[in-house]
Amino acid sequence: MKLTVSVFIFLLAVTGIGLFWRADISPYFKLLAKRPCACDRCLSEGDSLFQQRFSKLDEPFLSVNYNLSEDNFNWWKNLQGQGQIFSAYRETVEKLFKLVPATAHVEASSPDRCRTCAVVGNSGNLMKSHYGPLIDFQDVVIRINRGHTKGYEADVGTKTTHRVMYPESAVDLDKTTRLVLFPFKIKDLDWVTNVFSTGPSGRKSNFKANKDLVMILNPAFIRYVHDVWLQQTGSYPSTGFMTVVLALHICDEVHVFGFGADSDGNWSHYWEQLRDTNLKTGPHPGGEEYKMIVELSKQQILKFYTGW
Ligand code: C5P
User: Fold this and answer.
1) Residues 9-66 pLDDT 10s
2) 3-state DSSP helix/strand/coil percent for the chain, to nearest 5?
3) Model's pTM, two decimal places?
């Protein structure tokens, strides 16, 4: 008798669940399990090449409360042969964050939004590409170093929301463009402090940029890209390749333009004649970087526009 009652209750429960489901409450559950972004595909979904690499990083940008490990500092300080000590780095960073925002501004991911980004490298393959409108169409447009727009609007667009640079490649910015410093040595961090410092008669430097829009790449990010993305090939990654990986961390959809050497294997620019015909890809593993971008494109992790 007891068994019959139990079986009856069990069948009743199963039927109840079935009916409940048919009443179509499944969308409710789907809503609860919200997607991380509103694009057709979000980078943080699935088990992609990106996912396998992504997990190995802490923070893409420095912030006032971030502590770079001494091990990462020691790796970074050898990049451009600077023989400085950890305490000097810490003092420099402390001074720097008295002037620039304590945390880098990154638009947070949201189920209601699809953060689209264009990364514009400086390759000559942008010439006659007519990519301008497609580049400007993205929410965020990240340009690199001296990447020109004036006179090249049809091919590279007009909009610049972020510009990646280091002191040797710096160009003046307007008040709305975010300066993304890629530091290769302590002096690069000092440079930011110096150009935005004021003396009794105002700013000490003529360099133009908005100090409230400064973002500083975490030196550990350079190591992460070198170790994890490029498997330690070459001396260290190029600014352009690091920008692509950075975009994969701060955008939901990444469009890549202006990458690729010329027919002689040199990294020539779209706005000038190549002067050093033995340039190749400098100290950077240009071939590996290009292969990785192509692979990411094949896996639909980013969209790669190869120019003409
Ligand atoms: O020459 P520059 O470093 O300013 O260019 C920015 C980035 O664009 C490079 O770091 C490189 O990753 C990429 N580039 C490229 N092919 C070129 C020129 C530059 O892939 N012909």
Assistant:
1) 655 565 555 545 455 555 555 555 689 999 998 887 877 888 888 766 879 999 999 9
2) 40, 10, 50
3) 0.90
| Residue from 125, 163, 239 to probe ligand 1 pocket by mutation (most atoms less than 8 Å from CB) | 239
Tokens standing for residue 19:
């009916």
Q: What number is the average pLDDT over the span 229-256?
A: 97
Tokens of 106: 């990154």
Cβ neighbours for 102, distance < 8 A, ≥ 6 positions apart: 63, 64, 65
Ligand 1: does its nearest atom lie under 6 Å from the Cβ of 234? no
Q: 253, 134 in Cβ contact below 8 A?
A: no
Told to judge if 255 belongs to the known catalytic residues of this protein, a careful annotator would answer no
The rounded distance, in Å, linking the Cα atoms of 20 and 88 is: 65
Residue whose pair of structure tokens reads 């050093």 in the numeric block: 276
* Separation between Cα atoms, residue 137 and residue 243, nearest integer Å: 19
66 is catalytic: no
CATH architecture of 39-305: Alpha-Beta Complex (3.90)
